[in-house]
Design brief:
Elements: E1 3-5, E2 13-16, E3 22-25, E4 35-41, H1 48-54, H2 60-63, E5 67-69, E6 74-75, E7 81-82, H3 100-114, E8 117-127, H4 129-140, E9 147-151, E10 165-171, E11 181-182, E12 193-194, H5 196-206, E13 213-219, E14 230-235, E15 244-249, H6 262-271
Parallel strand pairs: 4-5, 4-8, 8-9, 9-10, 10-15
Antiparallel strand pairs: 1-2, 2-3, 3-5, 6-7, 11-12, 13-14, 14-15
């Protein structure tokens, strides 16, 4: 079920998701042409709209003509909103059986039922717990998504075996989800998770890329770190239409102070990777 706050036209606010509502932001330039869709997944204890603003991704609606939806996870018994990633590591700390893959797949289908979503340009970006969820969706919705971005997330421990373009972004001084992997996120007794480099290399292996990376021009993502602090490494030899890239923020923490250029840099990567 969706609630239309006006007709399905440019610049409207439309609520989808039924019992777990999310407001879709529609660019004013929308004219019924095939339009990209971006789902933004928040971290544990946050909310969709908060994370959309924090990452500056609300700007993409008008600046790049993107449909943007930032849904909420469900609250656990402590009130913290979370995504059930299927991982023991993060962040279903109280054993909920909520099926977030089903919910998010249904959300995409609802939006596509009203708006002309470009089927080759459906993307997911998540941070922390949302980054774990982005990886899971990359595995389980590989026939529907073009690419996923995970900020401070980690791949499932099992192999995905499905081709997907993936951008892993991680700070090497992350105190919560450690760059090199670990256990016990936030001191809550969570299980093991792999680090940023292993997450990226697993996707490269599953995508049938080579396990070597080529360094690209460094990026300036974080406003509180000097210069171009982010190393860029793209895996070599990936099949046509598939890409696995790692952005390592040297000195970056779990919640970086991203600069105003972050949304356009991330969107530039996503836009370059439609479904083959």
């Amino acid at each position: 079920m969706f609630l239309l706050l006006g007709s399905p036209d440019a610049g409207q606010q439309v609520v989808f998701g039924g019992a777990r509502p999310v407001t879709l932001s529609v660019p004013r330039a929308y004219a019924g042409r095939p339009t990209p869709l971006l789902l933004v997944l928040h971290g544990y204890g946050s909310s969709g709209k908060h994370h959309e603003k924090y990452l500056g991704l609300d700007r993409l609606v008008e600046e790049r003509g993107v449909l943007v939806a930032s849904p909420d996870g469900t609250p656990d018994s402590a009130g913290g909103r979370f995504w059930n990633t299927g991982s023991d590591a993060c962040c279903n700390f109280r054993g909920s059986d909520v099926d977030d893959v089903k919910y998010l797949r249904g959300l995409i289908a609802e939006i596509r039922g009203v708006y002309n979503v470009d089927p080759r340009r459906i993307y997911v970006l998540g941070h922390s717990n949302g980054g774990f969820m982005a990886h899971r969706l990359g595995c389980e919705l590989s026939k529907e998504l073009a690419a996923v971005v995970s900020i401070a997330g980690s791949t499932p421990l099992e192999r995905c075996k499905t081709p997907m373009s993936v951008l892993q972004i991680h700070g090497d001084r992350d105190y919560a989800v450690r760059y090199d992997g670990g256990v016990n996120i936030l001191g809550r007794g969570g299980g093991a998770y792999v680090g940023a480099e292993e997450s990226a290399s697993r996707w490269a292996r599953d995508d049938k890329c080579k396990l070597t990376r080529t360094s690209r021009e460094r990026l300036d993502l974080v406003s509180t770190l000097p210069g171009a602090e982010t190393m860029v490494g793209t895996y070599d030899g990936c099949p046509a239409g598939t890409d696995v890239t790692l952005w390592t923020m040297q000195g970056g923490l779990h919640v970086p102070d991203f600069g105003p250029q972050f949304p356009s840099l991330v969107w530039g990567w996503l836009e370059a990777h439609p479904r083959p």
